[in-house]
Amino acid sequence: MGLVIAATFGFALWIVLWALGISGLDAFLLALLVMLLAAAGRVVIGHLPGRDASGSQP
């Protein structure tokens, strides 16, 4: 669910920044950064101590 929220926030950020006059590519790169950070966080959380070895989420 967190990745969906991050993607939605990233795309909304892209549209808002683009509407404010920032280059579309720059705004998209910021949105991509948000989504990559969310994906990296999900991977890191899966490797923290206390998680089961299978990596399955309830």
Could you please describe the fold and organization of this structure?
There is one protein chain. The chain is mainly α and 58 residues long. It has one domain. Helix content is 71%, strand content 0%. The chain has 2 helices and no strands. Helix 1 (2-19) runs antiparallel to helix 2. The mean pLDDT is 86.
Could you name the key traits of this structure?
single chain; 58 residues; 2 helices; elongated; mainly alpha
Write the layout of secondary structure elements.
Layout: H1 2-19, H2 24-46
Poorly predicted segments: none
- What structural class results from the helix and strand content? mainly alpha
Q: Alpha-carbon distance between the termini?
A: 12 Å
Overall residue-averaged pLDDT value: 86
- What overall form do the CA principal axes indicate? elongated
Number of individual domains = 1
Strand segment count: 0
Q: What is the H-and-E element order?
A: HH
Q: Helix segment count?
A: 2
- β-strand percent reads under 5%
Percent range of helical residues: over 70%
Regarding quaternary structure, how should these chains be classified? single chain
Task: Give the radius of gyration.
Answer: 15 Å
What about the largest sheet? none
